[in-house]
Automatic annotation (TrEMBL):
GO MF entries: ABC-type amino acid transporter activity; ATP binding; ATP hydrolysis activity
InterPro entries: AAA+_ATPase, ABC_ATPase_HisP-typ, ABC_transporter-like_ATP-bd, ABC_transporter-like_CS, MetN_ABC_transporter-like, P-loop_NTPase
Protein name in the entry: Amino acid ABC transporter ATP-binding protein
Transmembrane annotation, as ranges: none
Stated family: Belongs to the ABC transporter superfamily.
Length: 246
């Protein structure tokens, strides 16, 4: 069953069409890699799913509810409830610099969900262990490497128990030698059947970990399919040209 349906999504900045009738579905346990050239609309599309960008037309259905239907948004309370089912991991980590790693993880469950301190503390310890950073609980972000910051950001997103995780180019701000440690965490989540949408430039990762690849160019999905067939035998000339250059 689809846990998210996106249909005919449109977004413009003035006369510039950024998204053109974008349509797709996400099933439970899907790991979908979204690839394509820079400036093709991938990040804008992803951000629109969690209301960080507002669209001009189309629908986004989360479970049985509509975040936006035919361009008309739900109430702010309904939007808040629906977007709380999704976790977002950003390219530049977006950690709070004045909070420790542990405090970064525990802030949102405390404020947004009002959970008890014992439960929050237990989960933050478990998630820091999961991403290999138990020894950094008391550290501030400035003392962490880029790879460590991104692993903290993933753990922070998981603290909210999301039904779906969205990644916006999670490794593009990292030095190449730090990329692997972040991709390994995402791969582990895939093996645990976490539903994920990953905007990425890492073709090897997309091929190995995703169960579906969607190729976006100029604001629309040109082609999508199972990774092995997409990478070995793309159907469109545009996808072929893109893959030859990466």
């Amino acid at each position: 069953m689809a846990i998210m349906r996106v249909s005919n999504l449109k977004k413009s900045y003035g006369n510039l069409e950024v998204l053109k009738n974008v349509t797709f579905e996400i099933e439970k346990n899907d790991v979908v890699a979204i690839i394509g050239p820079s400036g093709s609309g991938k990040s804008t599309m992803l951000r629109s799913l969690v209301y960080l960008e507002q669209i001009n037309g189309g629908s986004i259905q989360v479970g049985t509810e509509y975040l936006v239907q035919d361009g008309t948004y739900a109430t702010s309370q309904e939007i808040k409830r629906m977007t709380s089912k999704m976790g977002m991991v950003f390219q530049h980590f977006n950690l709070f610099p004045h909070l420790t790693v542990k405090e970064n993880l525990e802030l949102a469950p405390k404020i947004v969900k009002g959970e008890g301190e014992a439960e929050i503390r237990k989960r933050s310890e478990e998630l820091l262990a999961k991403v290999g950073l138990s020894d950094k609980a008391g550290a501030y972000p400035a003392k962490l490497s880029g790879g460590q910051k991104q692993r903290v950001a993933i753990a922070r997103a998981l603290m909210m128990k999301p039904e779906i995780l969205l990644f916006d180019e999670p490794t593009s701000a990292l030095d190449p030698e730090l990329t692997g440690e972040v991709l390994q965490v995402i791969k582990q989540l895939a093996e645990e059947h976490m539903t994920m949408i990953v905007v990425t430039h890492e073709m090897g990762f997309a091929r190995e970990v995703a169960n579906r690849v969607m190729f976006m160019d100029n604001g629309e999905f040109i082609e999508s399919g199972e990774p092995e067939s997409f990478f070995t035998n793309p159907k469109t000339e545009r996808a072929k040209a893109f893959l030859q250059r990466v």
